[in-house]
Amino acid sequence: MQLSHRITHLTGGGSDGWEVFYRARQMKADGIPVTELTIGEHDIGTDPSILAAMNAAAVGGHTGYAMVPGIDTLRDTVAARVQAQSGVPTTRHNVLITPGGQSALFAAHNATCNAGDTALFIDPYYATYPGTIRGVGAVPVAVQAHADNAFQPRAADIAGVASKGAASLLVNSPNNPTGVVYSRETLEGIAEVCKTYDLWLISDEVYDTQVWEGEHISPRALPDMAERTLVVGSMSKSHAMTGSRCGWIVGPEEVIEHLINLATHTTYGVPGFIQDAADFALNAGDELEKEVAAPFERRRALARDLLANQNTVGLVPAQGAMYLMLDMRATGLSGEEFANMLLDTHKIAVMPGESFGQAAHGHIRVAMTIPDDQFLAALKTLCDMAAEISNKRAAE
């Protein structure tokens, strides 16, 4: 007997680029102190008021099967939220509640791709994107965004690949890993490519509450895009509810009907007490969301001040999300080489840019997810090591 090719080749049959992370976690398990600047996990927990609402719902009996599409109150709340953000009329019939954003990404590609179809995504990318596409039997094809264009994807580059045949395009703004917020010009270019080549657009917007510069524009709001766009959202980043696993897809009613059928045969919905807590959180107002986002905006400002006083490490425009993408090419090292050296020498763990594709070769991603003083100390150590390597290289 053999396992399916699909399951054994989710990561393309090779490395997923996360060896530095796994090595750092093993060091911690072995009792070695490591400063982790790796994954996007808040250093503050879920707000006690949300946990209280979750507990009350569970104790009150909402622990049985919930409606597969999601409870009506939460679907209505998400619909109202998305309509307010985008200006596009949205009802509960445009919304499916999912077990987190990752489940929504998988479902969206199931809805838009047949086996063997080409599914496009932007490089640098969140690490699960290619595997998600392979998981539905489609073929992942990356379109590179370039450092010299501040990692804003160019419509011409996407069109050059889409013209060869594709079913879908996955974009992510605010972007993980780069922290870039796609401009209106970028999104309008993407929209034109989708219309020209009849692509479904899957828009991962889980960082929509973490925008430090510019504005978040959902491509669903652009002319003639609502009927070809599926928006993925989540409670994970906006409300520090990563472990609660509650997200959604917003799209045309016909698509949502089919996705409800898919959910019936896969996830069978999201626990009701989790959904009640999510509904409470979304109705708690902007102040709670701002409170969750505030540490990252503050640390971004601290990082920009520190980085302004050195000339070795470059900062990709940090416009949103909880990450910094740092340009380490002045050291002559790849992102993976620098990250491994930093871990070995100073017990500081960061993610190599290569973990997110090849467009960020020579970069590293730093998660702003530890207390301010520890974050600044680690960032200064990182910069000092980079300067030392760069100076030694120049002297040779």
UniProtKB/TrEMBL annotation:
Tell me the InterPro entries matching this sequence. Aminotransferase_I/II_large (IPR004839), AspAT/PAT-like (IPR050596), PyrdxlP-dep_Trfase (IPR015424), PyrdxlP-dep_Trfase_major (IPR015421)
Pfam families assigned: Aminotran_1_2
Q: Which residues form the signal peptide?
A: none
Record-listed E.C. numbers: 2.6.1.1
Q: Which cofactor does it need?
A: pyridoxal 5'-phosphate
| An example Gene Ontology molecular-function term | pyridoxal phosphate binding
Q: Which UniProt keywords apply?
A: Aminotransferase, Pyridoxal phosphate, Transferase
Protein name as annotated: aspartate transaminase
